[in-house]
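Run: sequence + adenosine monophosphate -> complex structure.
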Amino acid sequence: MSPVIVRTVDELRKKVRGLRDHGRTIGFVPTMGALHEGHLSLVRAAKADGHATIVSIFVNPTQFNDPKDLEKYPRNEAADVALLAPLDVAIVFAPTVDQMYVDGFSTKVSVTGISEVLCGATRPGHFDGVATIVSKLLLQALPDAAYFGQKDYQQLAVIDRVVADLNIPTEIVGCPILREVDGLAMSSRNVRLSSAGRQAAPVLLTTLKDAATKIAGGADISTTIDEAQKTILGAGFSNIDYLELRANADLAKLSRFDRPARLFVAAFLDGVRLIDNLEIGDA
Ligand code: AMP
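>> structure
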């Protein structure tokens, strides 16, 4: 059944009340649209937990530090709704920019520390935009649980922090990365790759796997990372924003593998910024 499409916060709250009056709990999946199986896996996780599910589709302008990236971000609401229809989603919340950022909007949710490294270092303001919009969405819908992909592991960590610090009464659920058969992490941005780029892109995961195996076996971190960077650049990526080993718990940068950790990478191919991460031990 086609989901109900809601455009305003008032209407969203009314519909959520209706679901709760019928005894339903609420699971929320925030997205920027251009949906793929990765997004659908979050919807399935929410449904498996027994929730009436809300999917938001909102290309949030405040989290784009590059106006060209915002302009080029793929948008296709009709296709998104068609993908969601068979999944029995209760509500698609697709507000306008004016609805989310009213005249005079001046509030910002900003997380220090974990927001300042990795993507935060190269995309100034990005996580303020993410933390602000996710706080708004959670306060608007007040869901029991909200589902996020580990593909954006740092984003998940930032949101965990926001929800704990602001006492937002929503359980945050982290879900595994969905990948194409060749290992490329699914992403709305993948459609912008050329066919040669698309063929080269899986080198990100194969390189992370190789480096993770070496690190798990005791290899020197900085030598391993230098080699991995050379492999990625040699495969056609134009530059690497970061390739680092960081602790799962607090994203501290590690020069020794002495606690649960993962490799994080962000690199450009065909002018498209791709990110991925891999837990050491998962290679
Ligand atoms: P986005 O629309 O890119 O903002 O992503 C919306 C949500 O989907 C975020 O929680 C992402 O982490 C999640 N997501 C995106 N790609 C994947 C993927 N390949 N596997 C799992 N979750 C994903």
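>> summary
Residues 4-175 form a domain with the Rossmann fold fold (CATH 3.40.50.620). The mean pLDDT is 97.
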